[in-house]
Specification:
The protein is mainly alpha-helical. The chain contains 28 helices and 9 strands. The strands form 2 sheets. Strands 1, 2, 3, 4, 5, 6 and 7 form a 7-stranded mixed β-sheet that branches. The protein is elongated, with a radius of gyration of 29 Å.
Length: 677
């Protein structure tokens, strides 16, 4: 262990160079420079380096019987907090002027989480059905800082205890935890990928690889061998950078390559050869010293630059954000990071702790206040907020009482089996005449059906689950998506068979199911000029329509097929509000030809199913589209709450579309009553 203590005093410029190897791919990857498809592995290089430095520093002090938790954490505070909170402050100012209330509310929560080092937990929890896009999360990158801080809290305590009470078994304990975490990560990446990505216990093996390099003795290699080991290590890192992509299951087994490769470079400690020459060069060492500030500032710069542009980054835009990132990085490093570590403020523990503690309290308070005030909509001009308010204008059938979310929260199977569903249409004690069954698109359009039923004096029920088409046992995507819907759809079919509803409305996001894809490029930078990919997966959907309709017909239930509403390609309230604020046109919908091409296959399948079975067919597009395009607004009302879900106003606008079918239902129900008399 004495060797560790001696190395603690040595500065290795090549490790600053290795930091440059870590940060540059991350920067280029986030800046959408396509030459670095696996640039995200730079974060894993940082993890290994962090584990190495932590173990090296702590073990050196422990071996000299000079370790102090207070001194250790004060060093961490000086290193991390001043630059972090300065970035958060600057980001908050920009977000105040740029973000809409919903985005500002999410942002404020991320400020609070970053201050408490729980960003990784927050962003994992935000991976739900209606989550906002990464383009609105300027603090998304703080997940890795939070994970490292959690490691810094746990690891020193564990290492001190192991060093004191199980020193002989220290290496074995470390390797056992490392391998257990690696095994768990390799499993979780396929079974719970968000948790595998964000949670410490699935990532700690990466940091412990670095710690193992610091603790395990280094052999005396023969001359020349270290440079080949370092070359092999750099080759492994670059292979991951250039060969991995967003589709690579990560972390898990695939993270082992860049992590082990990084450990090899650290372990080799080559003094000569091309790798040593590059890593020890002035440019790489300088970038490495800037790496922390560069990591802090590059992502907010990219997020806000994209928002300002209003479209995805071109190559020249990517170059611009890289330059801007270095500009803000240098200012942060020169004016904040360095003085906080080595200036007059750094010498005063009281000032450092007071300022850092005050900043943390302020950030947490900011998060609570903005959340409590709903994103502070008072920041926006009234005419802008009037458009944005459609974001919150969702119908009652999307509530937890009526609807099951993708994660199973909300309406439960027991309630479905008992028929304890949300009522639609006219009130009364009579037997419901219809059931509306579908996914979130069904829940969004349900108020239109309910209003039309009310006008005709007909009562019904609603049931739905997010991302589940109302077609039992059909294959509409990956098997785990299909499996998630099976129990819900079976319970609904059993309910229909028991209650024998005279009419069942089948409503869904049909284009998504027949193409197994949402609208390509959907988001704040949507571009309708490229034609959408239209791979045909309609065969199982058509087959399920036939079997489901036939099964319902056997018991006398008639089916009403409802075509989907047009997709807008972008968050409608957000896009309208931004257009209003900047004086741009409110005509944000894609051309009619684009919408028709996207909807063609699903409309063909529904039309064929209706013709074959004699089912009713309702087409909302006729009310939403003219000869040129479909509309996001009508009569001054915003018709959508996001890119493809109707707002409550939008649904009520469509109520007349369903009036003819309810005239039929009402007529048939009256005939049944008279016949019964």
């Amino acid at each position: 262990m004495e060797a560790v203590a001696n190395r603690h005093l040595d500065y290795r410029p090549d490790l600053d160079g290795l930091r440059a190897v870590a940060i540059l791919p991350v920067l280029f990857f986030h800046a959408d420079i396509s030459w670095f498809p696996g640039g995200f592995v730079g974060v894993d290089v940082f993890f290994v380096l962090s584990g190495y430095f932590m173990a090296r520093v702590i073990m050196a002090d422990l071996d000299q019987d000079d370790f102090s938790f207070g001194r250790f954490y004060l060093r961490r505070i000086r290193r991390i907090l001043p630059a972090l909170f300065s970035m958060i402050l600057a980001t908050s100012v920009v977000a105040w002027f740029l973000f809409m209330p919903k985005e500002f509310e999410y942002f404020a929560e991320s400020v609070r989480a970053a201050a408490l080092f729980t960003s990784n937990l927050l962003f994992e929890s935000e991976s739900g059905y209606f989550d906002i896009a990464a383009e609105f999360k300027p603090l998304l990158h703080t997940w890795s800082l939070s994970l490292e801080e959690q490691f810094y809290i746990v690891f020193p305590v564990a290492l001190v205890l192991a060093h004191r009470y199980a020193r002989k078994h220290l290496t074995g304990i470390l390797l056992t935890v490392l391998l257990a975490s690696f095994a768990a990560s390799s499993w979780a990446v396929f079974h719970s990928p968000e948790k595998a990505f964000y949670f410490l216990h699935f990532r700690v093996w990466e940091l412990l690889i670095g710690s193992a390099v610091a603790i395990l003795p280094r052999p005396d290699y023969r001359a020349g061998l270290p440079k080949y080991l370092s070359l092999l290590g750099i080759g492994g890192i670059l292979a991951a950078v250039f060969l991995y992509s967003r589709e690579t299951p990560f972390p898990g087994v695939y993270a082992a390559l860049p992590c082990v490769a990084t450990a090899l470079v650290i372990h080799a400690g080559a003094k000569d050869g091309i790798v040593a020459a590059v890593l020890n060069s002035r440019v790489f060492v300088a970038i490495g010293r800037l790496s922390y500030s560069l990591y802090l500032w590059h992502w907010p710069v990219i997020v806000f630059f994209r928002n300002w542009l209003g479209h995805e980054l071109t190559f020249m835009n990517s170059v611009q954000v890289v330059v801007l990132s270095f500009f803000f990085t240098y200012l942060s490093w020169r004016l904040i990071e360095q003085p906080a570590r080595y200036g007059a403020v750094a010498s005063s523990k009281l000032i450092m702790l007071g300022v850092s503690g005050g900043a943390m309290i302020a950030a947490v308070a900011f998060g609570f206040i903005v959340k409590d005030m709903g994103g502070i909509p008072q920041r926006l001009p009234k005419d802008v907020y009037a458009l944005y308010a459609a974001t919150y204008d969702k119908g009652p059938f999307l509530s937890e009482k009526c609807f099951t979310d993708t994660d199973g929260s909300g309406l439960q199977l027991g309630a479905i089996r008992e028929g304890n569903l949300c009522a639609m249409g006219a009130s009364g004690d009579g037997k419901p005449q219809f059931l509306v069954w579908g996914d979130s698109h069904a829940a969004a359009i349900a108020p239109a059906i309910s209003d039309a039923a009310l006008q005709s004096g007909v009562s019904g029920k609603f049931v739905g689950r997010a991302s589940c088409p109302p077609l039992p046992d059909t294959v509409f995507g990956p098997q785990h998506f299909v499996d998630r819907c099976k129990d819900t759809n079976k319970a609904i079919m059993d309910l229909i068979e028991r209650e024998k509803f005279p009419f069942v409305f089948l409503v869904g996001y049909w284009p998504k199911y027949v193409h197994r894809a949402e609208l390509p490029g959907e988001g704040i930078y949507f571009d309708a000029s490229p034609q959408p990919e239209l791979e045909d997966f309609s065969a199982p959907i058509l087959a399920s329509f036939r079997t489901t309709i036939a099964k319902l017909a056997q018991q006398g239930t008639r089916v009403v097929l409802v075509m989907d509403v047009p997709e807008m390609g972008r968050d409608v309230p957000e896009a309208l509000a931004r257009a209003k604020m900047t004086g741009l046109s409110l005509d944000i919908a894609p051309p009619l030809a684009y919408t028709q091409r996207r909807q063609a296959l699903s409309r063909q399948i529904l039309t064929l199913s209706a013709e074959e079975s004699g089912s009713f067919l309702v087409d909302p597009m006729k009310a939403l589209c003219d000869s040129e395009k479909c509309h996001a607004m009508a009569d001054g009302k915003v018709l959508y709450k996001d890119g493809d879900h109707l707002s409550l106003q939008g649904a009520k606008f469509l109520a007349p579309v369903f009036q003819p079918i309810f005239s039929t239902i009402h007529g048939e129900s009256q005939t049944v009553v008279k016949g019964g008399n």
